[in-house]
Design a protein that fits this description.
Radius of gyration: 31 Å
Number of strands: 12
CATH class of the largest domain: Alpha Beta
Strand order of the largest sheet: 2-1-3-4-5
CATH topology of the largest domain: Rossmann fold
Number of helices: 14
Length: 348
């Protein structure tokens, strides 16, 4: 018995695809969205300067609001602002009209998004925000729309065609909105002179957080960092690394002022005895005679990523850490970096 397919949407057959046609469609969408962003860039004017000034001078937080796809874009803009040193939150227009206005303070700045500028929820919300005392700005494709008439600042992205083949699904417009939001957030970030350590404080987790960690956060110090003087011997090297609570593969060598003078590693010890078996007297051989002089080093204020690059480039497992005067303050061990999620030497 044959069964007819009553719902065409459930058919399982896949049409044969022409790769060049598919690639052409994809490139066409990207080009249309690229054109929309370029059109928005061409429309930047004094209103953009006023928008940046409003965010920079905001003593409260930045609220981002919009309905539908514009609201989804707003969530990304809010996240970018928050992660680049501008406190921000999302505000749903409907919830705001039904009680969430209580979270808004007069010193807040509100960014609203609406392609048409006729979103009824925003038409009702913007006057309420202005009564509270907020500065309001609108990102829109129609600077003559009802929402634009209500907002303090209007950022015009241009009325470019959507990339959707039906001309309906938000695509080019949302790309331009998101780009405008990025432009605002990153312009403000640069004008605030946000430093890497500041940015790192907002991204403590994951690969990004690891890449922004400072050397001082991962280096070994105290008894975990074996240290020898120039007059110490190979025997004392063995005793020093044996005393370290965590397995140590090297000892730093300092002069009488605590300045880094060299490093001696287990690898050095192995090569020393392999190349001159029986000729080395551990109790008599001074570490200064066999150490690596003027070794590679990191500063305690460097990023871990920079120190790891040095270790990868030179194929070393231990890296002494000094302060800005060159005094030894610690040691980086590759074991600790791997334990914290950094890749060692196989991912360059």
């Amino acid at each position: 018995m044959s069964t007819a397919v009553n719902n065409p949407s459930r058919a399982t057959s896949t049409p044969k695809l022409d790769p060049e046609h598919v690639l052409g469609l994809g490139r066409g969408v990207l080009r249309k969205e690229e054109q929309a962003i370029a059109a928005a860039a061409a429309r930047l004017d004094q209103a953009y300067v006023e928008a940046v000034r409003a965010i920079l001078s905001c003593s409260g937080r930045v609220a981002v609001t919009g309905m539908g796809k514009a609201g989804d874009v707003g969530k990304k803009i809010q996240a970018t602002l928050s992660s680049t040193a501008t406190p921000a939150y999302c505000l749903h227009p409907v919830e705001a009209l039904h009680g969430d206005l209580g979270m808004i303070q007069p010193q807040d700045v509100v960014i609203a998004l609406s392609r048409s500028g006729t979103t009824q929820e925003l038409v009702g919300l913007i006057p309420a925000l202005k009564r509270i005392g907020c500065t309001t700005m609108l990102i829109t494709a129609d600077p003559a729309s009802p929402c634009a008439d209500l907002a303090d600042i209007v950022l015009d992205i241009g009325d470019t065609p959507e990339a959707c083949p039906l001309g309906l699904a938000p695509s080019s417009s949302t790309a331009a909105m998101m780009a405008m939001g990025d432009a605002l957030a990153l312009t403000v970030m640069e004008l605030k002179n946000v430093q890497p350590e500041q940015y790192a404080s907002y991204h403590p987790g994951g690969a990004l957080g690891r890449s922004l960690m400072k050397v001082a956060e991962v280096m070994r110090t105290g008894t975990d960092c074996p240290v020898l003087g120039l007059e110490d011997t190979l025997t004392q090297y063995g005793e020093a690394v044996a005393r370290a609570p965590r397995r140590a593969g090297a000892a730093a060598v300092v002069d009488s002022d605590g300045m880094l003078a060299g490093i001696f590693t287990h690898g050095d010890l192995f090569r020393l005895f392999r190349l001159a078996p029986g000729a080395v007297e551990p109790q008599q051989t001074r570490i200064a005679e066999v150490m690596t002089k003027a070794p590679k080093r990191a500063c305690d204020t460097d990023l871990v990523a920079s120190a790891l690059d040095t270790m990868r480039q030179h194929g070393i497992d231990e890296l002494p850490v000094v302060d800005h005067q060159g005094r030894l303050v610690g040691m980086i061990d590759v074991q600790d970096l791997v334990a914290k999620g950094f890749s060692a030497f196989d991912d360059q």
